[in-house]
Amino acid sequence: MPPFDSNPFTAVLILHGLLAGVDVLLNHELLARLPYRSSAAREELLHAVREAMFAFLFLGLAWWTWHGAFAWLPTALLAAEVLISAYDTKIEGDTRTLPTPERILHVFLFINLGALIVLLGQQAGDWHALPTELAPARYGWAGWLLSALGIAAAAWTVRDGCAWLRLRNRPADAP
């Protein structure tokens, strides 16, 4: 089977992971220093939930195709991501001024998320027509890259979850 199974969904998913990684490292850690700002507690919780969902998506889609009723799970996770992103955008706007690189990168992430939703919608339609099972997928190096992205997302889930636990009861940041 060729890389990406002749389907651009895997490539767009990898691109999303790479863009999100840059956003987390550059914008959340280096520029905004979110894990150290008590005003970012809710944002850190949303990020931890999002990262857990993407860890599941990256790892789950790296090695399996989700047939039948299972096709609804990745679809539901991307639908939840839209809601989380919308709420995260509101929280960010209410609590801080986003640096220019973060605003620009969020545009690319939202565009890519739209592409992911369209491509997964097409894929899920095909998968839903099959008998319910998790079927092995072989994407070669792309599967390994998705696995690495999944492990990184899982690690950042813990990082942001711990930051939320530490920040949630702290008094607000000084102006």
Structure description:
The chain is mainly alpha-helical and about 180 residues long. The chain has one domain (about 5-165). Helix content is about 75%, strand content about 5%. It contains five helices and two strands; from the N terminus they run H-H-E-H-H-E-H. Strands 1-2 form a two-stranded antiparallel sheet. The longest helix is centred in the middle third of the chain and has 29 residues, at about 100-130. The N and C termini lie far apart (about 55 Å). This is Diguanylate cyclase.
Distance between the termini: 56 Å
- Helix/strand order, N-terminal first: HHEHHEH
Count of the separate structural domains: 1
The proportion of residues forming helix, as a percent range, comes to over 70%
Mass-distribution shape: elongated
Largest β-sheet summary: 2 strands, antiparallel
Mean pLDDT: 92
Number of strands: 2
Main sheet strand line-up: 1-2
Structural class assignment? mainly alpha
Rg calc: 17 Å
- Multimeric status of the protein: single chain
Low-confidence stretches: none
Transmembrane segments: 72-91, 103-121, 141-158
Keywords: Membrane, Transmembrane, Transmembrane helix
Organism: Pseudoduganella plicata
Protein name: Diguanylate cyclase
List keywords for this structure.
mainly alpha; 2 strands; about 75% helix; two-stranded antiparallel sheet; about 180 residues
Summarize the structure.
This protein is mostly helical.
Describe the secondary structure blueprint for this structure.
Layout: H1 8-31, H2 41-63, E1 64-67, H3 72-95, H4 100-128, E2 133-136, H5 141-167
Antiparallel strand pairs: 1-2
Protein name: Diguanylate cyclase
Keywords: Membrane, Transmembrane, Transmembrane helix
Organism: Pseudoduganella plicata
